[in-house]
Structures are given as structure tokens and as C-alpha cells.
Amino acid sequence: MAKRSGKAAVEAPSEIVRTPAVDKKVLTDLLYQMLLIRRFEEKAAEMYAQGKIGGFLHLDVGMEASCVGAISVLRPDDYVMAGYREHGHALAKGSDPRRAMAELFGRIDGLCKGKGGSMHFFDKERNFMGGTGIVGG
Question: Smallest Cα–Cα separation from 71: which of 114, 113, 123, 24?
């Protein structure tokens, strides 16, 4: 940087940096996953408010992009362990939304046979190892 009259001047880059093009199908798939998570969470919140889902319910509303973005760069054989709010990560990793919702309802056809609930999703087939109930863990 060159100094002029006591202030640092920023030099212009010698060449323009271009963002690599991203396939439109990839972008569409990422948007679909974010919308799936949002709709899943909205329906879960509705069912919780009606008393149809017991226990605690910690939603990923507003964090869909971080879930999808983080998972999108992983390989299918990579393992994931999420934090406190894990529904979005499980769905982004490929867990079946029907089985995930069944888990919230405590049903036998849920991801953990209805025993894990909101805070303990687990999907061995997708290498999703669940989450931790400890905030910041």
C-alpha cells in the first residue's frame, strides 16, 4: 500500500477475480433442500403447538442455508455430528423427511424408532451420527 497525505491508499487489483460458475441444477438442488428444511420445521412447529409432538422441539428455522451449505460440500461417506438443532443437518444429509417427522411424533417408523425425539436424530445409512444436546458442545 502506498501512503498519501498520512492515509493508507488501497491499490486496485491488477486483474478482476471472477467467481466460478455454478451449475444451475446444483443451485436448484440447494434451494430445494433449504425449502424442504423450512417447510419441515414449519410443520413440526405447528404440530408441536397442537400438542402432537412431545418433549422439546428445537427448530432450524433461519439456519437452513448453513445446514445445506455445510453438508453440500461433503461426500456421501463423510460422517456428520450436528449440534443442538439437528433436523436441518439430517435432512440435508439425505434423511427421509417422513421418517424424520415420524421420529418427532415418537412413532416406530421414525429414524430412531421414535425413541430419539427432536434432539437425538440418528441415521446410520446416511452417516448422520445425531447431535449433542449440549449448546456449544
Answer: 123
What does pTM read for this prediction? 0.80
State how far the Cα of 44 lies from the Cα of 51, in Å rounded to an integer. 11
- Is residue 14 a part of any domain in this protein? no
Flag whether 116 is in a domain: yes
Q: How far apart are CA 65 and CA 70, in angstroms?
A: 8
Q: pLDDT for 65-92, tens place per residue?
A: 999 999 999 998 999 998 878 999 999 9
d(CA 2, CA 40) in angstroms, rounded, equals 54
Number of domains in the chain: 1
Pull the grid cell for residue 59: 427448530
- The C-alpha cell at 70 is 455445510
Write out the residue range of the structural domain in which residue 42 sits.
Answer: 23-131
